[in-house]
């Protein structure tokens, strides 16, 4: 079994925490349920479990009654992180939130595992790729991908707390359309902003839908995100 010096152990723990924290920082400023501290803990936990399996069982080396498998503990990290990721996924109305955060937790566990095994370059490269995906690709999706979806329109709705999303759905469905997704953004302490991706039939006039949405109780303003 390989041995790990105290200095290397400390460096790997610090690096795992830093890389996990970098990803968690983006999730924190995006107001996600799993943020800065959660990602640090996931990375540190994955690193410790991996080092335990790879370096912490040396005293059992050569004991015939004991079968040592350094990869078994790391494999269970992959399984265990799935339960934590599932806890970050929630359903709000007609949309599901938290999939990106669950994926970032999964990637953070992989980064912590890589650091623990001494694959620091791979961990750094993947951390950079994850941050690019989280920070930059959201704008690519908004500017390019959403606009290329045929028949879809983005509506920005300023609402008061307590608005029933079902009332908005009734208006959209009344025009023969449906809501593909809804994202909720807090606007101070007195309101929320909904960003809805809506598909409407070609014969429907968008302005008619906007005007009718504006009459729903709790809706303060409706605008198209062009």
Overview in brief:
With 226 residues, the protein is an alpha+beta fold.
Mind explaining what this structure looks like?
The strands form 2 sheets. The chain has a 4-stranded antiparallel β-sheet, sandwiched between helices. The radius of gyration is 23 Å and the shape is elongated. The model has no long low-confidence stretch (mean pLDDT 81). The chain is an alpha+beta fold. It folds into 2 domains: 6-135, no CATH class; 149-224, Alpha-Beta Plaits (2-Layer Sandwich), CATH 3.30.70. It is built from 8 helices and 6 strands; from the N terminus they run αααββαααβαββαβ. It has helices at 6-29, 36-55, 70-87, 99-116, 120-135, 137-148, 165-174, 206-213, and strands at 90-92, 95-97, 152-159, 178-187, 191-199, 219-224. A hairpin with a 2-residue loop joins strand 1 (90-92) and strand 2 (95-97).
Approximately how much beta-strand content do the residues carry? Answer: 15-25%
CA-based shape: elongated
Cα-atom radius of gyration: 23 Å
- Mean pLDDT, to the nearest integer, reads 81
Number of domains: 2
Helices and strands in order:
Layout: H1 6-29, H2 36-55, H3 70-87, E1 90-92, E2 95-97, H4 99-116, H5 120-135, H6 137-148, E3 152-159, H7 165-174, E4 178-187, E5 191-199, H8 206-213, E6 219-224
Antiparallel strand pairs: 1-2, 3-5, 3-6, 4-5
List keywords for this structure.
226 residues, Alpha-Beta Plaits, four-stranded antiparallel beta sheet, two-stranded antiparallel ribbon, 8 helices
